[in-house]
Description:
The complex is a heterodimer of chains A (378) and B (360).
Chain A: H1 3-8, H2 13-23, H3 26-50, H4 55-67, H5 70-95, H6 103-121, H7 129-161, H8 165-185, H9 219-238, H10 240-250, H11 252-257, H12 262-289, H13 301-311, H14 319-339, H15 345-358, H16 361-371
Chain B: H1 3-34, H2 39-49, H3 52-77, H4 85-104, H5 110-137, H6 142-165, E1 179-180, H7 190-195, E2 196-197, H8 199-217, H9 219-229, H10 231-236, H11 241-267, H12 281-291, H13 296-318, H14 325-328, H15 331-342
Antiparallel strand pairs in B: 1-2
Amino acid sequence: MSGEDDRGRARSAVDRAADRMLDASVLERLAIAVASTTLALVIGLVLVAVTGYDPLLFLSNVIEGAFGDNNAVARTLRFTTMFVLTGVAVAIAFRAGVFNIGVQGQFVVGGLTTVMTILWLAPFLPQGAVGGVALIVLGTAAAAVAGGLYGALPGVLKAYGDANEIITTIMLNFIAVGVVGYLVEGPFRGEGNRAPNTERIPEYVEFPRIVFDSSGFSIVGLAIALAVVAVVTLVMARTRFGYDMITSGHQQDAATFAGVDARKTIVTTMTFSGAVAGIAGAVFAIMIQGYYSDPSGVATYGFDAIAVSLLAANNPLGVVPAGLLFGGLDSAGTHIGIYSDVPVQLIDGIIGLVVLFVAAPELFRMAAKRTGLGGESR
Amino acid sequence: MTSAGFIDRNRVCLGSLLAVLVLGVGIGLGLGFWYGYSLSGMADIVQDIITVGFLERSVEAATPIALAAIGGLYAEKSGVFNIGLEGFMIFGAANTAAVLFLLGGRSPTQGELWLAIVAAVAISFFYTIVFAVLVIRYKADQIVAGLAVWFVGLGFGPFTAVLLWGNRNSPGLTSIDDVTLPLLSEIPVLGPVLFDTSPLTLLTILLAVVAWVVLYRTRHGYWIQAAGENPEALDTAGVSVNRVRYAAVIFSGLMAGLGGAVLLAHAGSFTGTGDTMVNGRGWIAIVSYLFGNYNPLGAAGAALLFGGLDMLQIQFQTAGIELPNKLVNLFPYAAVIVVLTLWGSTRMPSSVGESYESEE
């Protein structure tokens, strides 16, 4: 079976996109990521200057906010943990040629499931460390199941109903946020809570505070994120399932020829991706919030995760440095929100620009050729 | 395209619309019986829900979606999937609000509102050129670039608001006055819905008709269709594929920008919290034109369906049906999923998503 023949056949845009990303050498991908981020940051700084603020002060605020002191580092790592987890969830799907834009929804569903599972099960388990660990494990498992199912739904609709997953997952994001918002406002609201929140999970259900004594960050959370990255990398690189996923993402015809059930692969991919998003929701609920509130007010990790994954060329290992970069940016955003007059929304815009430039590697290839910098064999 | 093929395609479209309606009525009846209403009791409720005011509000809610949908289908017909409609709508709304505020402060006039709409559409022109160049010349991945436009809009829309008003939301500005056409507005039902309404609604209807005529009855329309279906043939005929695509993509950005501007002109102020005031309408626009089978009139009709679902909440309240707002607000999104699943097998133009290189 010749790959070159398959290449010539008509293929959907999604496959070609993934293909193009895989084609690029690791070094080139790295160069594109760095160039995209730099260009987006430069545009951001120009905007800062145009709107009448001091760009150098802004830049120093960004650096200080990301890595300035122990507090800033803990905050950066907290965001990094979330971006790595949600980023891996996105990468699983994108790598398999399935555009799961619904990580945000799966994240929200997972998070609420964790909190409710812990609240319901807490009375039946002993208090203290042992009960805490048991509740964390059960809550996270429940989140993985809930997130997986919520991801499987658009997978089934795509595989058997031919419904474009980009649109269905975006709609499911709106629906998840709306329904969870309704639940925490009414049926699941903690007794006597003035704000539309669930009850707090018990004190003893928390990650130990080692290394950093920060309320919203534990090194255990980061360790969980890195463990998930390792597991996902292994599954993708070393198992039959991972092989089927990636081949059907890049070479659908070849995969079908080799006996891969394309429809089943779409559903399992979405389930896997949703389950990881659910785990991200669990870590968010346990490590950061401790209860669940109206998700329309919660940070949109699931969306930025798309940028993280794209910047990493949808490679689960690449998600780690990309997550660190976005963690730093978001942490800087928090700092800027407090210590600077520049509207924080600028950071969101810059993240959008990063995605825009990552989408157009040809832009940098042509620029490199013209300036004689790279231009390798392409 | 043969006229027989045209009728055939519309029959399929009407058939599925009917299927969705039957499904909706079925669910409604089922729920009614479940809660123990008699048939006549349900008829009363339906009468309470479907009022002239409801139709008027639905048409108004449908206009921004219809505008973006018509733009989007032109781009896709030409072979470029403009998934960034949502982002362009956010820019349209934010820029209209910003220009309006800069022109007229907190109490702008109607003239200034029209000027702001024109200015916002003009600004959209420049954004769309950047997008078109990235997608066509630099062969950017259309899906990722489109998503990026959304993210950029979600960032810079509220950024503009915070710069101007120190808040993600604008203060109350002004909304567009209805125009009342004499005599025509006296016609029962149709009069108040179509001839005593926002002039932007009338503009949308006009644009939908013009877009239909241009697409199916002029040379330019055939070029657009050929650029998406058979770019090689168009190239052979001596028409630049990329030039046609540039025109279609830029048109789609202008229409989405206009959609955002109209949304703002109807609302009267900018909301930048959460997913901004656009709140998924750009995505719904994409589903509208898929549902309308890439036909501008069909897309406008589908937009009306989603506009109506969007306005159901008020009707439920007046009819005394107790359903949490937060859940009723989700109807359009749920409908999108149902429509897309039943109607997902729409045949896309064959060359969508592929960049074209002339063999010169």
